[in-house]
From TrEMBL:
Coiled coil: none annotated. It comes from Lacinutrix neustonica. The chain crosses the membrane at residues 77-99, 250-269, 281-302, 308-329, 341-366. It comes from the Bacteria. This is DUF3667 domain-containing protein. Keywords: Membrane, Transmembrane, Transmembrane helix. Pfam families: DUF3667.
């Protein structure tokens, strides 16, 4: 009795024709690609992932450390892979976040334009006695009122995104002080604005303007880039473009921040498994964080949540970290509290500020 063989179209290996599926790669043999097959496979694959997602999502929210423990223990098909779960939730978060930032960026552009626009005073006169007429006072009061509104709106934008920017309240207050902001900005600290305005109005070359700004022929590439971006910003007055670049780099930065978080855990629990084990824990914890932020964003689309509520929810993520560490690493409450506190401190006080400074510089240099 002869045995017939078929060749798999996917992996190109031979197998006995009596099998309907390739024993090497699992693809079905002799299956014609029809429209119904294409869509049925798509829907089937989607709901297969979706089912595992929901099977993983509830434990992720309500059972800290459970998924990481099960994955390390060998249950790696029952729940969604930690990296896949993290990627899916982070993509959803940044997708929703992009809608909320659009309005903020437009608002920042408008406020920056008000900050750097020269004060327009029409029909004003100053008498010989040194008094200003009523038209001048009216215009000055109007400008002062607009400036106050600009400060209030910019403060709100910065406060609403403090969990991403990492700015302290003191830094926010410093930034929105108009005179302090202008006097210390890269735009006005090293050159005369009136002279630069005159050169721009005369359509002078960028090389001439750079020289007026203080750039020397001997200056290096970094400083030249700084002046290039400074002039670009001075001409456009579009601070929102820098903010947009900052937001766009956050997802990329997370691919570096997450492994650093896992490294901190590895240093604190150096004898508790391989680095990959701590990375699994970090993937699930950051997936939880993005889940919380996604819920906050979603609720904000429906109704405006008070800032104190957002702050309380954000701070509660530390309690989740404490319970997750206690459950996953199986240590006492006191040691878990010390190590989770140390992890949060090192990450928030050292890693995040350095990252924010770097991203801020990167955003300005490449926006």
């Amino acid at each position: 009795m002869s045995i017939s063989y078929s060749t798999c179209k996917n992996c190109e290996k031979q197998f006995q024709s009596r099998y309907d599926f390739c024993p090497y790669c699992g693809q079905k043999d002799r299956e014609e690609l029809t429209l119904s097959l294409l869509f049925s496979n798509t829907i089937s694959n989607y709901f297969s992932v979706d089912a595992r997602f929901f099977k993983s999502f509830l434990p992720l929210l309500f059972r800290p450390g459970y998924l990481a423990e099960k994955f390390i223990g060998g249950k790696r098909l029952l729940y969604l892979h930690p990296a896949q779960l993290y990627l899916f939730i982070s993509v959803v978060f940044f997708f929703l976040f992009s809608f909320s930032t659009r309005k903020q960026i437009d608002s920042v552009n408008s406020r920056f334009d008000n900050f750097f626009s020269p004060t327009q005073v029409t029909n004003s006169s100053v008498s010989g006695k040194g008094t200003t007429d009523s038209t001048t006072l009216e215009v000055l009061n109007t400008n002062k009122e607009k400036d106050s509104i600009a400060k209030t709106e910019l403060r709100k934008v910065l406060n609403d995104n403090v969990f991403l920017t990492g700015l302290t309240q003191k830094q926010v207050d410093s930034l929105i002080e108009t005179e302090k902001f202008k006097n210390n900005s890269v735009l006005s600290s090293s050159f005369n604005e009136s002279k630069i305005d005159s050169l721009i109005a005369a359509k002078a070359s960028d090389h001439e303007i750079y020289s007026a700004m203080g750039l020397k022929e001997t200056d290096g590439a970094f400083k030249r880039r700084l002046y290039t971006q400074g002039l670009k910003f001075y001409k456009s007055k579009q601070g929102g473009s820098i903010l947009q670049t900052f937001y766009d780099t956050i997802p990329i930065a997370m691919f570096f921040l997450l492994p650093i978080f896992a490294l901190i855990l590895k240093l604190l629990y150096y004898n508790r498994g391989r680095y990959a084990h701590h990375l699994v824990f970090s993937f699930y914890y950051f997936a939880f964080l993005f889940s919380v932020f996604t819920i906050i964003l979603t609720l904000n689309f429906i109704m405006e949540i008070p800032n104190w509520v957002v702050l309380v929810i954000t701070l509660s993520t530390f309690s989740y970290l404490l319970i997750a560490i206690k459950h996953f690493y199986r240590q006492g409450l006191f040691l878990s509290f010390i190590k989770s506190g140390l992890t949060a401190f090192l990450f928030l006080a050292l890693v995040i500020p350095i990252t924010v400074i770097f991203l801020g510089l990167f955003s300005f240099m490449f926006y």
